[in-house]
Amino acid sequence: MFKPPAASFGAAAPRNWFDQGGKAYARFRPEYPPELAQFLASAAPGTALAVDAGCGNGQLTVQLAAHFHRVQGADPSADQIAHAVAHPRVAYACAPAEALPVADHEAQLITAAQAAHWFDLPRFYAEVRRIGAPRAVLALISYGVPQLDPALNPRFSRFYCDEIGPFWPAERALVDTGYADLPFPFEEQSVPALGICKTWNLEALLGYLSTWSAVRSVREAAREDILQGFAADLTALWGDPAQSREIRWPINMRVGTL
pLDDT, tens digit, for every residue of 182-219? Predict the structure, then answer.
């Protein structure tokens, strides 16, 4: 398991900082800034229904509910749906992005946040056209590699690029480029510059990294030496693990009108 040295955390026994599954995802994934949902609502032609495909545990889904009368979240993972955040205007369904439980031409906004790189895009785009109302808006949203402070970033960059780099699925490259290389056959709109900023302690950062598919692949390949080495180095560089440090992610979007 991926465990920083127990003594560094003042613990009697090592802890598993890299629990997997929907529970960890819900706890550690960073929230989007409220300005993102505000922008998406302002770009849509109406606010009757928003659909969030690949919604995960509902981070963006719930934020959209502040601006839309109804929001439909859909994700193929039952584990993610089981840990989705409840809201009176949000309905969740265990369903893939290519077969959304939405009536024809009903949605004013369709979003896919940190998920479109997993989709069968031709089938998803056909589904978007089926459920989209006239002039509906599609938004493919991703956030890039986290940026740590200068004392930590060189070691983190080596971990991300060199050590777990070979364990990333090929689709990860699409996230790193902000979906710039994805086909996007829609009338594209300009978007504001937005980002995510969190102040986290060491536990929160390692918990977030536990949700990465590359980290899971490292563990499945029995290469936990990679994770152990990174955890030990980061612990030494961090200092007091309870100390909070600022972490930033750029938000990238492809937004288009049907």
Answer: 999 999 999 999 999 999 999 899 988 988 889 989 98
Q: What is the separation of C-alpha 199 from the centre of its chain, rounded to a whole number of angstroms?
A: 17
> Cβ contacts of residue 105 below 8 Å, gap of 6+?
130, 131, 132, 133, 134
Q: Two tokens at 136?
A: 């509906």
When divided into structural domains, the chain yields a total of 1
Return the CATH number at 196: 3.40.50.150
Six-digit token string for 190: 């300009």
* Ramachandran angles phi, psi of 250, nearest 5°: -75, 140
Confirm if 22 and 13 have CB atoms less than 8 A apart.
no
Q: What are phi and psi of 223, to 5 degrees?
A: -110, 45
Largest CA distance in the chain: 60
Per-residue pLDDT at 242 exceeds 60: yes
- Helical (H) or strand (E) element with 70: strand 70-75
Contact 106, 69 (CB under 8 A): no
Could you tell me if residue 1 is inside a domain?
no
Instruction: Calculate ∠ Cα 140-119-40, nearest 5°.
Output: 20
The CA distance from 156 to 193, in Å, is: 24
Q: Is residue 60 part of a domain?
A: yes
Of the candidates 57, 61, 55, the residue with the CA atom closest to the CA atom of residue 25: 57
